[in-house]
Amino acid sequence: MDYLDTAIVLTLVIITVAEFSALTTDKLMSMMGSRTRGYDYWCECVVEEVRLSLIHDVDFTAAQSAHVLEKLNILMAYEREKTKPYLNRSVLLNNILSSASKVSAPKMADKLAQVLPDRIAKCDHSATSRFRLRTGIKVACVATIVALALNISSLSLINELENTDAEDMTRLQSQIESLNTRLEAEDDPTNAGAIMIELRSRLNQRSDLESKAFSVGPIAPSINRMSIEWIFGCVLTGLLAGLGAPFWRQQLSRLMTLKDLKEQVSVDKSAEGNDGEAPENQWGDASVNESATKDSAINVPSGVTGKFIPTNISWDPLSNQIDLDVIAQGKPERVYTPEELMHTLRLRLAPQYKTNLAAVNIRPESLKKLANSFFSSN
Questions:
Q1: Would you say 14 and 147 are in contact if contact means Cβ atoms under 8 Å apart?
Q2: What pLDDT, on a 0 to 100 scale, did the predictor assign at position 15?
Q3: Burial class (CB within 10 angstroms; exposed 0-12, middle 13-18, buried 19+) of 144
Q4: What is the model's pLDDT at position 150?
Q5: Secondary structure of residue 334 in the 3-state scheme
Q6: What is the torsional sign of CA 100, 106, 108, 114?
Q7: Are 137 and 242 in contact (CB under 8 A)?
Q8: Helix, strand or coil, per DSSP, at residue 238
Q9: Which residue pairs, CB below 8 angstroms and at least 24 apart, start in 330-334?
């Protein structure tokens, strides 16, 4: 399997483990009160920062500060009773400023509104960083247990995805057919016996490959759970899952983009090889044949210095149409219309699909990104 495909499959497995582990960890944290403790830590930090701001930033009296802090504690206590306590920053600030405006002059309340958000942000950063670190460690521990229980070893999975069993099977089948041909044509019994021994050996190898079981997953047979490699692979799966499903979704998106670009490069090279020595036109494509040009109502423009690369190609064989995105490189000498680009792309892609395409449709989002620099409004 291609290394990108291997990375994509491994990423999907880690995302699944991470999602399951995160849900399990969330339930455990709710049962153990970890969320409430994290919320209490944040509340203590906020109350202290508000107290310091009232005293040092806006010179509130002890009575005024006590009134504001009392209202704040009531709000925090109300939120704490919820299963997943959470206090929105805007609600928090509105509560503090509303309480402050009732016991102070408008100028003091305005000054407090200017300095208080920065102090609250310090608490948000401190509490969030601490909560995420602890949650990540717990998710990694749960994911490791899941990986050990379900036999999800990253090393074993990579080995399974990168093995060459299919190639070995093809090679063995070719050897078996060749040995059968030699055996049928052989007249000497001694040579025939040697061929039969070799043929039996190849048949046994093929039988072993056919009966080979996948070594990853809960139902995989004969797993050596005392192997250092297996234990390390499962622990590695847990540690990677501890980075979180959102992180791995980003990596999956990048890998899919790289795969699309790689496939596009392969298609471009194949098209160049099929075109032979045909000269390139101004779009960076091989020149199209005269009959295709005559069939079109739009002439390919001249003097184009930019190069347009199609990507994320989706072909519908029933309607014989292609939907795609376009990446542009360089700048043209003049402004063109989207129809001119669609026409040129249709001529460029038609040989790759060995058909006269009915239409090439550039997705609106992709076209919008190029509109200001490359295309006229019509």
A1: no
A2: 92
A3: buried
A4: 87
A5: coil
A6: positive
A7: yes
A8: helix
A9: 330/305, 330/306, 331/305, 331/306, 331/373, 332/303, 332/304, 332/305, 332/306, 332/374, 333/303, 333/304, 333/305, 334/301, 334/303
Other CB atoms closer than 10 Å to residue 326's CB: what's the count? 21
362, exposed or middle or buried, with CB in 10 Å at 0-12, 13-18, 19+?
Answer: buried
Cα angle, residue 30 at apex, residues 25 and 34 outer, rounded to 5°: 85
Provide the pLDDT for residue 371.
Answer: 63
Can you tell me whether residue 322 is helix, strand or coil? strand
3-state secondary structure 50-66: HHHHHHHHCCCCHHHHH
User: 10 Å Cβ neighbour count for 345?
Assistant: 23
Closest CA to 309 of 299, 293, 324: 324
Q: What is the mean pLDDT of each run of 10 residues along the chain (378 residues)?
A: 78 91 84 78 87 86 89 88 80 87 85 86 78 85 90 82 65 80 77 80 75 65 76 91 89 86 71 48 39 37 56 72 76 67 76 75 76 53
What is the residue whose two structure tokens read 């960083």? Answer: 129
**CA-derived radius of gyration, the chain:** 33
| pLDDT score, position 284 | 42
Angle, vertex CA 304, rays to CA 299 and CA 308, nearest 5: 95
Sign (positive or negative) of CA dihedral 214, 219, 224, 230: positive
Specify the pTM.
Answer: 0.49
* 143 membership: H or E segment, kind and range: helix 106-150
The pLDDT value given to residue 26: 83
pLDDT number for residue 285: 42
311 three-class SS: strand
Query: Three-class SS of residue 117?
Result: helix
Query: Pick from 258, 196, 342: which is nearest to 8 by CA?
Result: 258
User: At which residue do the structure tokens 């039996």 appear?
Assistant: 200
Closest CA to 51 of 66, 63, 41, 73: 66
Instruction: Provide the strand spans (E) within the chain.
Output: 307-316, 321-329, 359-362
Structure token pair of residue 61: 């009296």
Cβ–Cβ < 8 Å for 156, 233 = yes
Closest CA to 44 of 133, 135, 122, 102: 122
